[in-house]
């Protein structure tokens, strides 16, 4: 089996077209990866670049599998199958990642955590209707640890967080999470997770810087609505003291 | 040989002990209610009280139930036992540990000491 594989691989690298395409693909993978880390781009652009990076990482493997397939007589080794196989493979990966990460993910995550839908206090409902959208759902988590995060259009707040903060501080936290929702931070996080599994380069990347920028943006959003940093800072102090 | 802790004060931290002292007569209270009462005696932050109650819950000394009110969702904490029951449970745990560790020696000692 290993002998056959080495024959297939040496056969693959003996063809200049494959080598050229592999080098081009890896170069584009590096370029798109470096660009995806730039904070100057919008989240949508960065996600596109991240998935483009994954596509370029996978392309040499698709070419290799096509090359191996050409050695089997029954395989359709026409140029048509090469053109179709790569986008189908990559499109499939992106579609599966998108469906599970962005559509089913938040719902499954809420269920896995045992989170309960919460209508919120009257003031929080007002905040959500003014600054959020009807699609945004609040959930509570049954723990005394103060936790707050968002995934997709769902905002998760622990009971510990709700009982620890004043109404204004809780509003600041919800606004912070609304900042994440509007900035689609969780989409980037999910994309990063997919990249971590699929791309070797992702392991050498420092995404903490990106995450800090997301947190700063979410804080700035809460401050811009409340016209003061007092409540979000108080909330952070209380959470850190826990 | 290490001293064996049997009194409430020696098995709980001072803050845990103070929180329980408030909970025992009142039976069921919210974090904020306990904080208000405790703040009259000592300088303590709300988050510290919440931490202590979470710790007592983890140790199965108190139970909690979520209750929805006007201000949102709150935990209502209730002690599992009254003070006497709690002290009895400490003695029970300690005696069990002694028997587990020293076996027949501990049983013989208890027979000699209390069998009179």
Largest interface, chains and sizes: A-B, 20 and 20 residues
Gross morphology of chain A: elongated
Uncertain ranges of chain B: 1-6
Q: Return Rg of chain A in Å.
A: 23 Å
Oligomer: heterodimer
Approximate helicity band of chain A: over 70%
Approximately what portion of the residues of chain A adopt beta-strand conformation? 5-15%
Provide the residue-averaged pLDDT of chain B: 86
Spatially, the strands of the biggest sheet of chain B line up as 1-3-2
Could you characterize what this model shows?
The complex is a heterodimer of chains A (242) and B (116). Chain A is of the alpha+beta class and 242 residues long. Chain A has ten helices and four strands; from the N terminus they run ααααβαβββααααα. Chain A is elongated. A three-stranded antiparallel beta sheet of chain B has the order 1-3-2. Classes of the chains: A alpha+beta (242), B alpha+beta (116). Chains A and B meet through α6 and α10 of A and α4 and β3 of B.
Question: How would you briefly describe this protein structure?
Answer:
The complex is a heterodimer of chains A (242) and B (116). Helices cover 72% and strands 7% of the residues of chain A.
Name a few traits of the molecule.
heterodimer; A: 242 residues; 4-stranded mixed β-sheet; 72% helix; B: 116 residues; alpha+beta; 3-stranded antiparallel β-sheet; 6 helices; 60% helix; elongated; disordered N terminus
What layout of secondary structure does this protein have?
The complex is a heterodimer of chains A (242) and B (116).
Chain A: H1 2-13, H2 16-36, H3 43-71, H4 79-113, E1 116-118, H5 122-131, E2 137-141, E3 148-151, E4 154-158, H6 159-164, H7 167-183, H8 185-198, H9 208-226, H10 230-241
Parallel strand pairs in A: 2-4
Antiparallel strand pairs in A: 1-2, 3-4
Helix pairs in contact in A: 1-3, 2-3, 3-4, 3-8, 5-7, 7-9, 7-10
Chain B: H1 8-11, H2 14-26, E1 29-30, H3 31-39, H4 46-58, E2 62-69, E3 72-79, H5 83-102, H6 104-114
Antiparallel strand pairs in B: 1-3, 2-3
Helix pairs in contact in B: 3-4, 5-6
């Amino acid at each position: 089996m290993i002998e056959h594989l080495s024959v297939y691989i040496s056969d693959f690298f003996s063809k200049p077209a494959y080598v050229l395409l592999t080098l081009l693909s890896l170069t584009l993978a590096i370029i798109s990866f470096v660009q995806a880390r730039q904070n100057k781009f919008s989240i949508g652009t960065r996600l596109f670049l991240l998935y483009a990076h994954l596509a370029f990482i996978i392309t040499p493997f698709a070419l290799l599998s096509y090359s191996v397939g050409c050695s089997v007589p029954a395989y359709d080794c026409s140029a048509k199958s090469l053109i179709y196989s790569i986008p189908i493979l990559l499109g499939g990966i992106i579609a599966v990642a998108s469906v599970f990460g962005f559509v089913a993910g938040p719902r499954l995550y809420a269920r896995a955590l045992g989170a309960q839908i919460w209508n919120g206090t009257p003031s929080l409902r007002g905040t959500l209707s003014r600054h959020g959208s009807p699609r945004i759902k609040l959930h509570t988590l049954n723990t005394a640890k103060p936790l707050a995060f968002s995934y997709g259009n769902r905002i998760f707040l622990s009971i510990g967080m709700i009982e620890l903060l004043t109404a204004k501080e809780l509003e600041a936290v919800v606004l912070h999470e609304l900042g994440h929702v509007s900035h689609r931070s969780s989409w980037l996080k999910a994309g990063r997770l997919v990249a971590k599994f699929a791309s070797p380069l992702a392991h050498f990347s420092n995404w903490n810087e990106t995450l800090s920028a997301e947190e700063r943006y979410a804080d700035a959003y809460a401050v811009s609505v409340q016209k003061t940093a007092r409540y979000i800072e108080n909330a952070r102090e209380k959470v850190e003291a826990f | 040989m290490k001293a064996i802790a049997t009194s409430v004060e020696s098995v709980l931290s001072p803050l845990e002990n103070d929180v329980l002292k408030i909970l025992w007569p009142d039976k069921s209270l919210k974090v904020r209610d306990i904080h208000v009462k405790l703040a009259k005696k000592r300088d303590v932050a709300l988050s510290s009280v919440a931490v202590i109650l979470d710790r007592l819950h983890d140790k199965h000394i108190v139970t909690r139930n979520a209750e929805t009110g006007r201000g949102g969702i709150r935990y209502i904490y209730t002690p599992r036992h009254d003070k006497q029951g709690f002290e009895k449970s400490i003695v029970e745990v300690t005696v069990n540990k002694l028997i587990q560790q020293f076996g027949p020696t501990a049983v013989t000692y208890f027979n000699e000491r209390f069998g009179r």
